[in-house]
Amino acid sequence: MLVLGIESSCDETGIALYDTQKGLLAHALHSQVAMHEAYGGVVPELASRDHIRRAIPLLEQCFAAAGVEHAAIDAIAYTQGPGLAGALLVGASVACSLGLALGKPVLGVHHLEGHLLSPLLATNASYAPPRFPFVALLVSGGHTQLMRVDGVGQYALLGDTLDDAAGEAFDKSAKLLGLGYPGGPAISRMAEFGDPLAYKLPRPMLHSKDLNFSFSGLKTAVLTLVKNHPANICEQDKANIARAFVDAMVEVLVAKCIAALKQTGLNRLVIAGGVGANAQLRSALNAAADKKRFQVFYPELEFCTDNGAMIAFAGALRLQRDPAAATHDYAFNVRPRWPLNELT
Ligand code: ATP
Ligand code: MG
Ligand code: FE
């Protein structure tokens, strides 16, 4: 079965072709980061317009790279939500128009399910993806959740953030340090040069005895440190603050993952979402996995942040379970707000 995937929930246009026998045939991505950078964050209207410009050329690029005809696809999976309504509508309308033109069925995919299943997508033979069940930590720009995953569509929420998402805290703290948008990768690079002993920031909810998170206080602590510095805060101070932020964030995320493994009695941990690309988080999790004897799995770096491959892949897994999940009803709707637990 060959599935075309279309992602357009936020500021990345992603297209991919996934074959259930041969794996990922091709994928293409355009990030709008440079366009939104000037505004310090995503401007929804600009995002929608850019998706319109990019979707078809990327689609053609993908088919050409895979060397397959349009008519060879069996279904089209598109991100139905959650995300920006206007941006989602672009992907949905491209998917449904193409479906109508080619007579192929379409399937709306949950963006977070795409992230969640991305560590199962193996594109090289040396990677052995995790078996179900596992604990998943979803750490993205809009979400920070711990889940027990028993199979495709079987997700039990174990913990959630009470306020900011991890990626959001990275981005907001980076902005406070003047590091641009999106700040996750920038603050992470800067932290490498920071003195770990210069500042100590709070570890929010580290001892809360549940699996929930809270990161808005951490961002406020960064704000306080920045304010305590003169206007011309030096690079070393920025690096020290970045280091304190990353250390606090990583310690909390790792501790909650270990607690979730303990609570569920599972020994496989899967990381998904953009913050899963973070080098400090990966090395701390790897060290914990060695010490506590659990296995940890990550998506490939390019599939941590938004991409079309995870949507094609999640769509294909859904269709393998239930071929009727895709329909010839092209009257699409999008779901800007769509809690994962409403997914059946
Ligand atoms: P959601 O999936 O919740 O709707 P999103 O799609 O915007 O949100 P992702 O694309 O999964 O989120 O991830 C983007 C986030 O990941 C941004 O907040 C970005 O700063 C963060 N991020 C990306 N790379 C890194 C990194 N190396 N270190 C820390 N954070 C990172
Ligand atoms: Mg993005
Ligand atoms: Fe995402």
Automatic annotation (TrEMBL):
Pfam families: TsaD (PF00814). Binds 1 Fe(2+) ion per subunit. Its cofactor is Fe(2+). Residues 24-313 form the Gcp-like domain. Its EC number is 2.3.1.234. It comes from the Bacteria. Keywords: Acyltransferase, Cytoplasm, Iron, Metal-binding, Transferase, tRNA processing. Substrate binds at residues 138-142, 171, 184, 278. InterPro entries: ATPase_NBD, Gcp-like_dom, KAE1/TsaD, Peptidase_M22_CS, TsaD. Transmembrane segments: none annotated. GO terms for molecular function: tRNA N(6)-L-threonylcarbamoyladenine synthase activity. Fe cation binds at residues 111, 115, 306. It is found in: Cytoplasm. SUPFAM superfamilies: Actin-like ATPase domain. It catalyses: L-threonylcarbamoyladenylate + adenosine(37) in tRNA = N(6)-L-threonylcarbamoyladenosine(37) in tRNA + AMP + H(+). Required for the formation of a threonylcarbamoyl group on adenosine at position 37 (t(6)A37) in tRNAs that read codons beginning with adenine. Is involved in the transfer of the threonylcarbamoyl moiety of threonylcarbamoyl-AMP (TC-AMP) to the N6 group of A37, together with TsaE and TsaB. TsaD likely plays a direct catalytic role in this reaction. Belongs to the KAE1 / TsaD family. This is tRNA N6-adenosine threonylcarbamoyltransferase. It comes from Undibacterium arcticum. The gene is tsaD.
